[in-house]
Amino acid sequence: SFNVNGEWIVKNSFANLISDIKNGSVVTLNHSLDLPTGVEINKEITIDLNNYNLSISEDTEGYGVFYATAGGHLIIEGNGIINGVGNNNWNITLWAKGGQITINGGYITNVNAGSDDHYDLVYASEGGSIVINDGTFVAHTPNWTLNIKDAHRETSSIVVNGGAFHGFDPANNAAEGNGTNFVADGYVVVERDGVFTLEESFEDAVKDANVS
Question: Which partner for 124 in 8, 58, 96, 179 could form a disulfide, CB atoms 3.0-4.6 Å apart?
Fold first, then answer.
């Protein structure tokens, strides 16, 4: 019968997404999905959002929409929303759990996560590394937009080369201790109406202008 209910469609689409990730290196979304649980990334895979959205509203684990484990490298491309709000206590959206995540686009959020004062949006632990080149980041608790697990600060990392951060200064991350700077060398942070973005530092701009 063609009269399938919405739940079947979602589960079938999730199965297709998992199959595409398992069998390919680039996955381009062709519709929005509310995933039943987070997706582990254990190899290099590019997800092109392609103007579609991913959410995880019934997930009870809280590992994120995607979590990259050792040997995994998730690359996010394109426009679209990734929403980490689920039926759990963590509501993480992207987690480098020993693996790598590179964010080149997307609207990353966990707004409406709950009533606590600490929900990590983008999280690194266990030697995980995150590089942010672009994207928009809107956290339910802005102070925790980017966070590294305290016990793993020596082995895990977050580097910001670009992006727009609502209510969060990546050059002064109080969650890691006042003055903690995730911003790559050569950039400064500019705040406009509560949104923090990166610009080339004056010194580097002058150097570039004088290059013959």
Answer: 96
- Give 115-163 pLDDT, tens digit per residue: 999 999 999 999 999 999 999 999 999 999 999 998 998 999 999 999 9
The pair of three-digit structure tokens given for residue 65, joined into one six-digit string: 């929409």
**Calculated CA dihedral for residues 157, 160, 165, 168, nearest 10 degrees:** 50
Residue 196's Cβ-count burial label (10 Å; 0-12, 13-18, 19+) is buried
Q: How far is CA 194 from CA 164, 168, 198, in A?
A: 10, 8, 13
Alpha-carbon distance of 145 to 130, in angstroms, equals 13
User: Under a CB-based contact definition with an 8 Å cutoff, are residues 201 and 186 in contact?
Assistant: yes
Q: What are 17-55's pLDDT values in tens digits?
A: 999 999 999 999 988 999 999 999 999 999 999 999 999
Report d(CA 92, CA 139) in Å as an integer.
Answer: 10
